Give the backbone structure.
Amino acid sequence: MHPIVEREQLSPNVVRLVVEAPRIAKVRRPGQFVIVRKGPGAERIPLTIADNDAGAGTITLMIQAIGASTTELTNMQVGEAISDIAGPLGSETHLLKSGHAVCVGGGVGTAVLLPIVRALSQAGVHVTSVIGGRSREWVILERELRELGDVVTCTDDGSYGRHGFVTEALKDLLEAGGVDAVYAIGPVPMMKAVSAMTLPYNVPTTVSLNAIMVDGTGMCGGCRVTIDGETKYACVDGPEFDGHKVNYQELSDRLTTYRTFEQQALDKLGACATTEVKA
């Protein structure tokens, strides 16, 4: 069992959980993930490790409530325990050694980006984080990122920071020159747009395909992606890949595979939560 020792609501549907997992905390590297199972019979969910504290024996998970299983996890409170956490899994991030890196995060992708920004900063790389959300309440981890480098915030409705998409802010940075690498994590359309934007500038671009993972071991085949014409598995070959080589159309299609089942599970969870039990 893995007790929850801290809980924080970061945005309307994103929760930060600090949980006890001492063995994982000792060896985890930026970019790696864990498989989480709330309890017996529950769904296995791949989640990126946002942070770790080897001394305290804890890891940090930032979870977006989208489906039934992630909603159940975000509803957990301090003192409760997650049944199983397996990992760390996946390959660690290939980090820029020097120069200027721009890290682009959309929505909960900002949480996945945080450990990469921290590792780059600790290596002496100049980091500019470009983060965004629909409105002010959806922008997360700005304070933490500002401690590690420059930050540009964007909101779709202009309620906070720069009005517009993160790709527009990225374009300004690319045109100014001096960008040596870009790391982009967020919705697939955003990562696709970022990769298309950096290609003419010949700037190496890394994207994370963690959202497509299912069982996290390569056995289910649900995370098959085409990278530069070759079949790869996001969980064992990634989850990070060269953004200029990803087949985004195939990736987008594959993400919809379980959408009907996910909605049915979410509807069932809602029904259970709202049904009055009578004696």
About this structure: Confidence is low (pLDDT under 50) at residues 272-279. The radius of gyration is 19 Å. The chain is about 30% helix and 30% strand.
